[in-house]
UniProtKB/TrEMBL annotation:
GO biological process: isoleucine biosynthetic process; L-valine biosynthetic process
Cited CDD domains: TPP_enzymes, TPP_PYR_POX_like
The protein's name in its UniProt record: Thiamine pyrophosphate-binding protein
Upper lineage: Bacteria, Bacillati, Bacillota, Bacilli, Bacillales
Residues of the signal peptide: none
Length: 547
């Protein structure tokens, strides 16, 4: 008879067989059995400095591998600190398994430090709205059924985070057998809509492709270009869809919405058909679309039906399933002899005039950055005015190499995501563009990268204020309460104290030199940009009404 193995053994073995090579988190008593077993099974544990950052690192890892990632937190506050990262993963359809500890089931009802039960902080319940599935594993013989369901949910359908809360004694419980079923990728297509999609495109006079985050998440960059070129349709990108197509493709007409260009927004208001690829059409994308200019018809490709057809006053053709799979099916079904010929402006001059400022302009820095960095790169961008400046001005040369979340919009997420992505893809040069506000939240994660020799280059935009909040409040309320840092940070000193190389830049020339040196060093580096505090960010589209 086979030797008995613990629940922790079976989980570690299953995760290794799923291709997981690294895990992220902060260790503690309640989670020790599983973390240590994973190390025994060859899965490297990368200890973070804050659970939120560890969760973001797992998300960056999942994004780069396209596979399951794992993040740990202890019971109680270690688990609650992961919830923000779980919600971020859910908003971005990233398959992360969040594992939290719990006091032993046999001790349930006894007051204990860092309680995760229903008597204090019920982690299984708290994670439920932030994930696709959350469950307390109360017995070892329940583990296989619950674990199989969790990984199936994470890796199938619309994909996303799941959570298991596993008591200490369940982790160490011995089992005679444990059957693990490994999910395989399914082709998710909507066969019934193919002809309707093609007919709608051929009957439209001014169609427009709106490429969203789903293009980047599904890796459908080639299919997007083929669709645009087959039907000669202009393409615009949402903030999260930035990088779905290279910046200088003849059919690319720029970003739209917050951080967008006027040219792209004008197309939004003068098109009779939208072909929306993986976008919820949030306020960050359609803030400049007038109600009277909603298109006659909307084709919306999305794996998540929650908002499909519910935002615009348009006749909607909803195409469910994976964006790449569905685009491939549509393209295979096109009759080239029946395609409607149409005149479409190419090589549009969507770029706008750069601001002229007395001090360093972030817009100018972003407009030249892609010329300074290695070709094999990915740039992770944090939320704030620096993020939307990057959306507007940064030139993406490699499809899918720009990662930005304007939907859940969690400050500091890019710091951890960049680290996790570098772990998963060590051959790439990974950059993180963040702000001083984000950096003061989760910048200690730099030390994780230093200790584990994960050479990410962090660009910290330091304007000594919560710039996006300040400019928005000042415009709409006339007040700036809580937006200024009376004692501003010194990002270089902070970085050096954590073991990273630091560079301070006040000119374009200094920035170019810092990029070159940081790449050559091949170690964790922080480049601090002291930018003009008065620069107007491209975020003033949404209006706050306080009345």
């Amino acid at each position: 008879m086979d030797l008995l193995k613990t629940v922790a053994d079976y989980m570690a073995e299953a995760l290794r067989n799923l291709g997981v090579k690294h895990s992220f988190g902060i260790i503690g008593k309640s989670i020790c059995p599983i973390v240590l077993k994973m190390v025994d099974y060859g899965i490297e544990f990368i200890p973070g400095r804050h659970e939120s950052s560890s969760g973001f690192e797992a998300s960056g890892y999942a994004l780069k591998t396209g596979n399951l990632a794992v993040a740990f937190g202890t019971s109680g506050p270690g688990g609650t600190n992961l919830i923000t990262a779980a919600a971020h993963a859910k908003a971005n359809n990233l398959p992360v398994l969040f594992i939290t500890g719990h006091q032993s089931i046999k001790e349930l009802g006894i007051p204990q430090c860092q309680d995760s039960s229903s008597y204090l902080a019920d982690l299984a319940e708290m994670f439920r709205p932030a994930t696709l599935f959350s469950k307390l594993v109360e017995r070892g013989d329940h583990f296989s059924t619950i674990f199989n369901h969790a990984i199936s949910v994470a890796l199938s359908g619309k994909r996303g985070p799941v959570h298991l809360c596993i008591p200490f004694d369940v982790q160490t419980e011995l089992l005679e057998e444990c059957r693990i079923v490994y999910p395989e990728r399914e082709t998710l297509v909507d066969y019934a809509k193919v002809n309707r999609v093609i007919n709608a495109i051929n009957h439209s006079k001014k169609p427009l492709i709106i490429a969203g985050k789903g293009v980047n998440r599904s890796g459908s960059h080639e299919e997007l270009v083929q669709l645009a070129e087959t039907f000669n349709i202009p393409v615009v990108t949402t903030p999260g869809g930035k990088g779905a197509i290279v910046w200088d493709h003849p059919l690319y007409h720029g970003p739209v919405g917050v951080g967008g260009c006027k040219h792209g927004d004008d197309l939004l208001n003068h098109s009779d058909l939208y072909i929306v690829l993986g976008s919820r059409l949030s306020d960050m994308t359609i803030c400049n679309l007038k109600a009277e200019n909603h298109p006659e018809t909307l084709i919306q490709f999305d794996i998540d039906p929650t908002f499909v057809g519910k935002i615009l006053n348009s006749h909607t053709i909803a195409v469910g399933g994976d964006v790449r799979d569905n685009l491939s099916l549509v393209l295979q079904s096109v009759d080239s002899s029946a395609i409607t010929e149409r005149d479409t402006e190419t090589a549009a001059h969507y770029k706008e005039e750069l601001p002229v400022l007395s001090k360093l302009s972030l817009a100018s820095v972003m407009s030249t950055m892609s010329d300074l960095i290695p070709a094999n790169n990915t740039v992770f961008v944090d939320d704030g005015s620096h993020g939307f400046n990057a959306v507007k001005w940064y030139n993406v040369k490699k499809p899918g190499s720009f990662v930005f979340d304007a939907y859940f919009a969690c400050m500091g997420n890019a710091i951890g995501m960049a680290i996790g992505a570098k772990v998963a893809s060590p051959e790439e040069t990974i950059f993180c563009i963040t702000g001083d506000g984000c950096f003061m939240m989760l910048g200690t994660e730099i030390n994780t990268a230093v200790c584990k020799n994960i050479p990410v280059i962090f660009i910290v935009v330091n304007n000594m204020q919560l710039d996006m909040a300040l400019k928005g409040m000042e415009k709409t309320t006339g007040r700036i309460d809580g937006t200024l840092f009376e004692v501003p940070m010194d990002a270089v000193k902070f970085a050096e104290s954590l073991g990273a190389a630091g560079f301070r830049c006040e000119t374009q020339e200094q920035f170019a030199a810092a990029i070159s040196e940081a790449v050559a060093l091949n170690r964790v580096a922080v480049i601090e940009l002291l930018t003009d505090r008065d620069e107007v960010p491209p975020t003033a589209h949404r209006v706050l009404n306080m009345n």
